[in-house]
Design a protein that fits this description.
alpha/beta; Rossmann fold; Rna Polymerase Sigma Factor, Chain: A; single chain; 9-stranded mixed sheet; 2 domains; globular
């Protein structure tokens, strides 16, 4: 399967939730499968924090890296591209083809850096709605995503209720907890502490790779679980057979995290990391409302909500709170808690159960 990667250019300004405007904007997106003549089989899949538009398959741009949801998207898979037209776009504020802090500000001819306006999950969804118009898609059969992608799916149901038939929300939440905000702040501090960050003005010199690598290492720990780390690494050592106090990466888990952190700096921008983490912190569908249930008063979509028992970043209690709010509005909502040892990353790794549930759910839609 070969994805079709394109760039959507929107020349007009987009009004953001903060009241600021941004424009022109670009969104990088990839498509899979074919849109039917009635344009009723379109599914939008939204990526998580560090994801991008390259969802699955070989890229038409020559991208060699596998898609981030390779196991879930394709012919006969959970999101069957023989049946559905699947779209994935890099979010506004990202760094993989969509307008973000690393993009050139047309007013100055230099990268925006921290002059880039604050973006929220709602702003990301507004940009995706413009892409939907460009593609001629009046409504999505389904918007699906895990983690930050799940937040976008929820926001679609609130911002554009008439343009959404269903939503699949995986390992996500309707509002971040104090603990999750705290877990987002520590990686940001690692970037701030890197002398190369220079308050975001690093594009013409050395980049804050050390800080970004540490930030990714911290974040990656939150994606795993004690059981998955114990099974994968245990207390095994890669270099020494006895304790030597070399202060180098000795345990396998240390080496793994160092590798993941260093690899991350090759494909991601530190300022985008900061902006997207703040967008998640600000996400709260109940903000300014008497209750979370009030956020879904106009929502008409059907929901499939899934959580994972070992996910301590967005634990099952948050998904249950979401489902209660949906049911209070008589919304058709199915909730499934998956027994898993893979932590928050389970939604990316354990796709067999997802495939079974998604097929049945989409048939009902």
């Amino acid at each position: 399967m070969i994805s079709d990667q394109k760039i959507f250019n929107h020349e007009s300004e987009l009004k953001l939730q903060s009241g600021a405007t941004l424009g022109p904007i670009t969104l990088a997106y990839e498509t899979y499968g074919s849109l039917n003549p009635a344009r009723t089989n379109a599914i939008l899949i939204c990526h998580a924090w560090s994801g991008d538009a390259h969802l699955a398959g070989a890229s038409s741009t020559g991208e060699s890296r596998p898609g981030w949801w390779e196991e879930a998207v394709g012919p006969g898979k959970a999101f069957d591209t023989d049946k559905y037209f699947v779209v994935c776009s890099n979010v506004l504020g990202g760094c993989n083809g969509s307008t973000g802090p690393a993009s050139v500000n047309p007013a100055t001819g230099k990268p925006y850096a921290l002059s880039f306006p604050i973006v929220t999950i709602a702003d990301m969804v507004d940009a995706q709605a413009l892409l939907s118009d460009h593609l001629g898609i009046v409504y999505w059969l389904c918007v699906a995503g895990g983690s930050m992608g799940g937040m976008q799916a929820l926001q679609w149901s609130v911002s554009y209720p008439k343009r959404l038939r269903s939503a699949i929300v995986l390992a996500s939440t309707a509002r971040l907890s104090a603990q999750t905000i705290a877990l987002n702040e520590v990686p940001r501090q690692a970037i701030y502490a890197d002398p190369n960050w220079r308050k975001g003005e690093y594009y013409e010199g050395a980049r804050p790779d050390s800080g970004l690598a540490v930030a990714r290492m911290i974040g990656h720990i939150t994606f795993l679980s004690d059981a998955s780390m114990r099974e994968k690494f245990g207390r095994r050592m890669r270099i020494n057979t006895h304790y030597g106090y070399t202060f180098e990466s000795e345990f396998e888990v240390e080496t793994y995290l160092t590798y993941r952190g260093n690899q991350f700096t090759k494909r991601f921008d530190a300022n985008s990391f900061l902006y997207l983490s703040k967008a998640m912190d600000y996400f709260d569908l109940s903000y300014g409302l008497p209750s979370l249930a009030d956020a879904f008063r106009k929502t008409t979509a059907k929901f499939l909500v899934m959580s994972y028992t070992s996910d301590w970043l967005y634990p099952s209690a948050q998904s249950k709170e979401l489902v209660r709010a949906l049911l209070q509005n008589d919304i058709d909502a199915t909730y499934v808690e998956i027994n898993s040892d893979y932590g928050h990353d389970a939604f990316l790794l354990e796709v067999d159960r997802l495939a079974e549930l998604a097929r049945d759910f989409l048939k009902r839609v």
